[in-house]
Each structure stands twice: as C-alpha cells, then as structure tokens.
Amino acid sequence: MPKRLEFDPIQRAGELWEQHWPDEDAGVYASMRAVTSIMRAHQILIAGLDAMLRPFGITFRRYEALVLLTYSQDGALPLSKLGERLQVHATSVTNVVDRLEAAGLVTRTPNPRDGRGTLAVITPAGREVARKATERFNEERFGMGAMPKEDLDALFTVLRDLRRDAGDFA
Description:
Order of helices and strands: HHHEHHEEHH
Mean pLDDT: 93
Number of domains: 2
Low-confidence stretches: none
CATH class of the largest domain: Mainly Alpha
Distance between the termini: 41 Å
Number of helices: 7
Shape: elongated
Helix content: 55-70%
Number of strands: 3
CATH topology of the largest domain: Arc Repressor Mutant, subunit A
C-alpha cells in the first residue's frame, strides 16, 4: 500500500485545475473533483470487495452474476439477459460465465425457449458460494462501513440521477 499523503490529492488537483483554467464555470471544477473522487472510490471499493471474495475464488463481477442467477425464478438466465442486467457487453458475459463454469459454479444449457440461445444455470456449489459471499458482504456492509446510512442513501440518490441520465433506465 502506498504511503498515506498529508493532503487530499484530489482537492489539490481541483485547486490546480482552477488555477490553470480560471475562466471556467465553477461547476467544471466541482465536476472534475467529483468524477476523480468517484473513480478513486471505485478503485478502493473493487479492491476491497475482490479481497473479500478472494477466499471464494471469484471477483465482484462473478459474484453479481451468481446473485442474479440465485434470484432468478429457476436459477437460470439467458446469457443475453445476464448481460443486460449486469449492464455489460456480450463478450464480458461470456468471459464471466466461462470462469464460473470452469469453477463449477454454473453450467450452460440450451435455452428451451430459443433454439439458438444458451442459459447460464447456477449449480449447488454456486448457490453456496453466493450465500457465503453475501454473508461476508453483509458483515462488512459491502465495504461501506465508514459511512452512515443517511449518507449512503444520499449517495445512492445522487448516483441514481447520473445513471438515469446516462440511459441505464427510464
């Protein structure tokens, strides 16, 4: 882990941004600091979540897929639906399912409703990994234990607006 800085580098970058771009609207500076903070928070969270998942042999993306399959009606979803719900490209879904299948956590079967499609089906081992990993996440509050519930709710609302504006949902 790198040495802890004596200052907030994102705040410092924001101040330098303002010095080098003095004619910009104040919203530009706030946007720069917010985006940079979100990106750094993403790095911190993914590293922490993946560390919690390491004992289970999965990553956060694979965990998300297992949970979706666990919550689905029959423990199965078409790969296209899995990609849609995970909001990733078809190639990424194939990679996630390949890795889960290699670990014995899912199987692939032909989709009986679509002769060309494939279903990802969670195995009993996959259900067990999803259950244990979820217990760990719940214990650790998904790595967000430093923030009170009210701040987490506010953060969700703010980021939800960003996601809606990006077209994630209507």
